[in-house]
Backbone:
């Protein structure tokens, strides 16, 4: 099967979150299942700077108002197609925001152009290669399915994957005339969404199949609490909805070979984690004592429950713990955490920003990772934690509930526990989970068993890749 993946970011070329990790790992995992996946990604400056030996696969004289080229290249084992459209993507800032953190005002046009390019590739734009299936990720690529539905390509199966339903790509109705779609596309069966244009809504309505990134999240988004206004549509598509939990790249995230950590280790050499613990303490200015180190590696937002971290930080220190935080986001939450770190020098440290190498060291050196998300479609940091013997303490929601086995008495007795879950998702619930973790920490044998069991967890893409391959095959059988 030839699969075209359309995504706004892909690791290791460009990354702002878990979407990039998925878009980068899934093609490699699918290779063993009779598929060839090519990934179309925008030509941001960071992407263009990393490419070598590119060839021009196709050109556009006018792609929603801009000239563009589709470049073909390989990078880190990935078969990449790059939409080289300088008018849309060659600008300072990140993929979605400018240099001062504000959304680009033309994001609707930029990602409609990406989606339209994907649809034209499906039509046969590239000589000698056409996809059997098109797989679009999140709102930035969901319009691919819309363009295909309304421009004569509805016979080609499409999949839209929702990585986070909270981000929907909703814009004013005035942009519709600029999308170069027929008038009937602006309807309840297409893009119209409460009088606006909904990119993700349109993709969910027009795709042959919809997936999301964990079974529990698939169930959650059918409810008003988690459906973000789209639960009615999701319920209408329930027969076409599949929850497939994400995996991680177990070559990149391998404590036995990781060059980004102070000392490699395995489940049978856990004592060697001590060197990473020391390096982590040095990096965050933490005391070198026996108190457990809890880490947070996250966007600092309400969704991620970071206000709960700020609320319990003083208490963690009072209980003898230490806290290392890496992330950026809401200015108020950043300030609250910085204030807490200032109150507890030697017990709490914070690095504002995104630092991939440091995140590896934190997983390798921390004793536990705190993930109190109010909703979490899948989550990857808990999978990294399992892989590195960094015990996850997670809210019981979405993919967190699907991937961490709570250390209740039955699970501990059976030797299958891998971490701690909590609900309700509030400060009291988080404190109780940390109390349970502290009790286990003070029983070294129990803690070591938790680490070892977590490191045995299959967090690879193998099972999930087969589920995607099976989904693709089932769609082709209907084509």
Residues:
């Amino acid at each position: 099967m030839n699969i075209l993946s359309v995504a706004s970011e892909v690791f290791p070329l460009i990354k702002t979150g878990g979407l990039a990790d998925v878009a980068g790992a899934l093609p490699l995992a699918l290779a063993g299942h009779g598929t060839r996946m090519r990934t179309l990604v925008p030509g941001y400056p960071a992407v263009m700077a990393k490419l070598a030996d590119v060839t021009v696969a196709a050109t556009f004289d006018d792609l929603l108002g801009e000239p563009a080229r589709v470049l073909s290249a390989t990078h880190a084992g990935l078969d990449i197609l790059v939409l080289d459209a300088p008018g849309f993507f060659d600008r300072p800032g990140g993929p979605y925001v400018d240099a001062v953190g504000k959304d680009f005002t033309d994001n609707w046009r930029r990602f409609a152009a990406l989606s339209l390019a994907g649809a034209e590739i499906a039509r046969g734009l590239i000589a000698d290669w056409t996809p059997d299936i098109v797989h679009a990720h999140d709102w930035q690529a969901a319009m691919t399915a819309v363009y295909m539905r309304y421009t004569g390509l509805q016979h080609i199966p499409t999949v839209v994957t929702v990585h986070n339903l909270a981000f929907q790509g909703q814009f004013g109705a005035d942009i519709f005339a600029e999308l170069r779609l027929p008038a009937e596309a602006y309807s309840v069966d297409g893009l119209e969404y409460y009088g606006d244009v909904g990119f993700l809504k349109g993709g969910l309505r027009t795709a042959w199949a919809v997936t999301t990134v964990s079974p529990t999240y698939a169930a959650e988004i059918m409810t008003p609490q988690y459906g973000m206004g789209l639960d009615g549509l999701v319920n209408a598509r329930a027969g076409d909805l599949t929850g497939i939990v994400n995996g991680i790249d177990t070559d990149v995230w391998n404590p036995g070979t990781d060059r980004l950590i102070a000392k490699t280790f395995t489940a049978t050499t856990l004592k060697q984690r001590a060197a990473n613990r020391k390096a982590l303490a040095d990096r965050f200015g933490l005391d070198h004592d026996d108190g457990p180190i809890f880490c947070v590696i996250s966007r600092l937002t309400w969704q991620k429950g970071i206000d709960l971290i700020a609320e319990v930080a003083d208490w963690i220190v009072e209980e003898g713990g230490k806290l290392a935080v890496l992330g950026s986001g809401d200015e108020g939450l950043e300030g609250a955490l910085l204030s807490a770190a200032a109150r507890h020098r030697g017990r709490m440290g914070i690095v504002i920003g995104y630092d991939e190498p440091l995140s590896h060291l934190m997983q390798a050196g921390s004793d536990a990772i705190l993930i109190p998300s109010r909703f979490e479609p899948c989550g990857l940091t808990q999978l990294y934690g399992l892989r590195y013997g960094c015990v996850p303490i997670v809210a019981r929601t979405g993919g967190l509930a699907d991937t961490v086995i709570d250390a209740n008495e039955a699970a501990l007795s059976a030797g299958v526990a891998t971490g701690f879950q909590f609900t309700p998702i509030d400060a009291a619930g988080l404190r109780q989970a940390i109390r349970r973790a502290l009790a286990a920490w003070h029983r070294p044998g129990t803690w070591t068993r938790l680490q070892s069991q977590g490191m045995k967890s299959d967090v690879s893409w193998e099972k999930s890749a087969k589920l995607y391959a099976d989904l693709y095959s089932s769609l082709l059988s209907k084509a």
User: Anything to note?
Assistant: The mean pLDDT is 97. Residues 145 and 169 are 14 Å apart (CA to CA). The longest strand covers residues 66-75. The chain has two domains: 2-247+462-478, 270-456.
